[in-house]
Here is the input.
Amino acid sequence: MSILIDKNTRVMTQGITGKTGQFHTHHSAAYAFGKDAYVAGVTPGKGGQEFEGIPVYDSVAEARSETGANVSVIYVPPPFAAAAIDEAVDAGLDLVICITEGIPVLDMVRVRSRMKQTDTLLIGPNCPGVITPDELKIGIMPGHIHKKGPIGVVSRSGTLTYEAVDQLTQLGLGQSTCVGIGGDPVNGMKHLDVMKQFNDDSETEAVIMVGEIGGSDEEDCALWVRDNMSKPVVGFIAGITAPEGKRMGHAGAIISGGKGTAEEKIRIMEECGITVTRNPAEMGTALKNIL
Amino acid sequence: MKIHEYQAKRILSDYGIPVPAGTPCRSVEECVTAARELGGNRWVVKAQVHAGGRGKAGGVKLASSLDDVKQHAGSIHGMRLVSKQTGPEGRIVRQLLVESGIDIDKEFYLGLLIDRSRQQVALLASTEGGTEIEEVAASTPERIFTVYADAESGFNQDDLTELAARLGFEGDINTAAVSLFNTLLKIFVEKDASLVEINPLVLTKQSALLALDAKLSFDDNALFRHEDIRTLNDPDEQDADEIEATRHDLSYISLDGNIGCMVNGAGLAMATMDIIKLYGSEPANFLDVGGGASTEKVTNAFRLMLKHPNVRAILVNIFGGIMRCDIIAEGLITAAKEIHLDIPLIVRLEGTNAEQGKQLLEESDLSIISAGDMADAARKAVEAAGGAA
Here is the structure.
């Protein structure tokens, strides 16, 4: 088992005729069972073309009915990305993973409001994607640092997630699924939503959650963990040294009005029984120590 | 993106929200002329900088004669305004706003922003106008009332009527307040704002609602569709180095420490700053080089970090995913040579082709200190910069 995606998932790339979409579809299809999983691409007006043997369709609905793809990954530029998510949601896909960075926040407010009436799950935007090691990679993460195993990883960051994964792999601790939920203030699944799935996943034995300053998603997740989680959780929060009022790269990484500080998040996570390390070089060992 | 108060008030006024009569000025003479043309016998002279807390910092003064206007404008124009929001370095006041005085009966707070948990636009209102809303939230949270907007249909009108009543508005004023709330949401949505704040909104002695102060900020990700807003940008209000960084597609924020750091990815960049502190020193900056760290980008990043007078060492932390470490190493070597880097450079490369990258660094004739992992890198950087603070 794993969460969200596995080798039986069938994926379409929205924005497959763009440079980014092609680059990452190529690398993702080359990973593990990717060749079987990537069955379609979508670019309006480019239907009938092919990319490395993958057929391109004009719409998500068409790609779905022709190939049975139930998951999409989006590499569409920011001005059009919200409409791409809407299209995937309207086509009734199970899961949409939006990699695109720089989508206007109010576009995402509208997207999320429309999604309330549907069962489609959204990961991202502004995220590295999701990988179930040795089965399927959907996103921009380097596949080779991952190893199959019992640790769930959920993070708001890209390279910091790779750092956590790499530390785990070096210690011989493989991963069940690694989920990058993205750095935007208004997004799809949050730490809490992913944590619930890890709790229900028979293969996952422990979880590492990586957060950062801004918002209260880590706190919300910590409170749920305290009351419901049956597996150990290790955490790290980036941004102890971040000044207030400055956006630290990610659109959502900002301390405003004294809210969303790393110290506050760490305090609440610790109170909720999560083992928090303040040293980003020790995320892996912190997890190993509690097993 | 932030704009000045006078620009914000112009936008409010364009949407029909009453604001005091006023004129933006760039000199003391302009202020006096503006006051004379506005007429009356009371004026307010206000510093125009992108930061709150101007009143306490001496940037807002009342004048009851043209001589007063001249004197106050003289003291505010060119002053270094230091408030809680500017940081200790403060802001030089280059522009002023001269407005007609208003007879105030009551003051209120109004703010619209995005509630991240609910993923909706929220309207916050309070009877504690003129105070910073964070202070009200901390001391008397029961005095803040909140209403949420539906992404499609906007505010529920009954919610707004009730909110207006809680602020003490009855009859015609209640109707006017509800209309004002709806207009603020319209502005927020149509302009892709990230904050619309009127603090204070005042009820005048003539029983009219008026925006006595206004603060608007906009979503940087949406500026591509708002050329009118982009033209309101005032580069004088931005850190020159941060503007320079944006031009080179780098995400950069200057800090107070002595170790420059260059990292790929925002989360890892923050974590690198944190580990520098954990090992006893302080980061001089946040710098995310992003996904494609070309030689040109690295060179520009080095130049930016070296502008910082306190920098004693540079720590490069790259997790090469799609980006190959050997390519990064070549870029680092070329950049370090080009700018004649003369302070210790500590490099930690991990990920794709990390070994080839490290070998290139070792074979170069530069004295680069290679690090094994993040902890090793931080330890070496702190030592190279002169030890723990």
Notes: The two ends of chain B are 35 Å apart (CA to CA). Residues 189 and 294 of chain B are 38 Å apart (CA to CA).
